[in-house]
Specification:
Structural class: alpha+beta
CATH class: Mainly Alpha
Order of helices and strands: HEEHHHEH
CATH architecture: Up-down Bundle
Number of strands: 3
Distance between the termini: 48 Å
Helix content: 40-55%
CATH topology: de novo design (two linked rop proteins)
Number of domains: 1
Low-confidence stretches: none
Oligomer: single chain
Shape: elongated
Radius of gyration: 21 Å
Length: 163
């Protein structure tokens, strides 16, 4: 039996989380860091590195987080996600972890050894797109907690009974 994808099973938060997972996945292939140097007699040299080239293990974690976020939402759309797996909490946790890992790599550029003063290190667009994707997965998980499958937000407090 083949499970059929049905978007009506998804909340807006789950759709946001899946889109964030896709953005996070794509960002791993974009430039995250750049290095440039002006060398007398040779001119200016520059090089960019993607997450795959610059990161040791965090890139694999981010890849797995992105795939897991997409898979959780796809399984919900197909109606095959087991009831004992809390999709909103899973998405919120995965997104939060991804956001922390990306923030860590924004603050701490991965370099080996001392970098000469002539070399300028910079952050490129890919790392900021990764942060947006991770934040979208986190927000999608949080929002899914407050939504019904039709995508409407549930009230924070119970309404008074009708008279």
């Amino acid at each position: 039996m083949v499970a059929r994808m049905d978007r009506s099973r998804l909340t807006t938060g789950e759709i946001i989380a899946a889109a964030g997972g896709i953005v996070l996945l794509i960002s791993l292939f974009l430039p995250w860091y750049g290095a440039s140097a002006d060398i007398p007699g040779f001119g200016s040299l520059s090089n960019d590195a993607s997450a795959w080239q610059a990161l040791g293990f965090i890139d694999i974690l981010l890849f797995l987080i992105a795939l897991a976020a997409i898979a959780v939402v796809a399984a919900r759309a197909a109606g095959v996600l087991p009831a004992d797996i809390p999709a909103p909490v899973t998405l919120l946790g995965l997104g939060g972890l991804a956001a922390l890992l990306v923030l860590f790599r924004i603050v701490d550029i991965p370099v080996e050894g001392d970098v000469p003063d002539e070399i300028d290190l910079s952050r490129k667009v890919g790392i900021f797109i990764a942060l947006i994707g991770a934040a979208a997965v986190t927000y999608g998980g949080w929002r899914t907690n407050t939504e019904t499958p039709t995508g409407r937000m549930t009230p924070a407090t119970d309404a008074p009974p009708a008279a």
